[in-house]
DNA sequence: TGTAATCATTACAACAGCATAACTAAATGT
DNA sequence: ACATTTAGTTATGCTGTTGTAATGATTACA
């Protein structure tokens, strides 16, 4: 699988692999260590990061607890706990599923959407040192990242 | 601070800010959601990620518990707990501080270094989709990331 | 020399994260 | 109609994280 002329028909030379490794390691340092904002968001919204994660998963639109559980890779029981907490805080509510009376949909309240927006603002605001780069560098990064996202 | 002609003497136009934001958001998706290897490393080494974090902090060279606590932003008591655990596993040992007899240095054993190396290998291995990019894209990413780390 | 500050530890205590098993209600398939 | 499956909840417990207070040993300073 790693030999020349493999499935992709493309050989990645050593220097490129090293560059990729260096870049990946650097990205980890940047995002995990230097600009990790989990604590910051958690403090700003007064809730643990796992709740914020849930909030952001629900934000795009109502979904069943099952779907939420799958997207967060957690058990149904723990999902119930998380949603209970969001409901208690007034950020989410359970509404009946339109066709399946076993299921419930979770959706954000207006407050919940506001909280999700605040979280998104904090989490997606690029750090100073990124904005300080030249325009070409930022655009190059943007281009490569969008390729990676497929 | 945000007005034209600010401290840096450089104005960042809107499109560039948007590109930076998009790139930053994309990076977060990539590293936090899509290729998050915390669980993987934790399972591979049979210990929680916080232990692995400690292992990696100690790896560069012996340091006092206080220094370790600062670099991990944890309390001294919890640092003791973590080091105790690493010692119990045979990955670290406490040695007397050369000049301050109150303090102790923590350093990795040979096994500890091997474990740290395994962790580093898993965490810094670039994901498939990064290696699948064109050489120029990888090099561009590497270049921008190294600027950011600078 | 004695007092205060520092390093590490111990002993608790509280809470977050996450899993398992048992249960109810509703849907599905025979 | 009955058995099986599925959605969600409840009860329970274990592990890991993190804080506070108290203790012992050593160092630094007045």
From TrEMBL, chains A, B:
SUPFAM superfamilies: Winged helix' DNA-binding domain. It comes from the Bacteria. Residues 13-150 form the HTH marR-type domain. InterPro entries: HTH_MarR-typ (IPR000835), MarR/SlyA-like (IPR039422), WH-like_DNA-bd_sf (IPR036388), WH_DNA-bd_sf (IPR036390). Pfam families: MarR_2. Coiled coil: none annotated. This is MarR family transcriptional regulator. The lineage of its organism: Bacteria, Bacillati, Actinomycetota, Actinomycetes, Kitasatosporales.
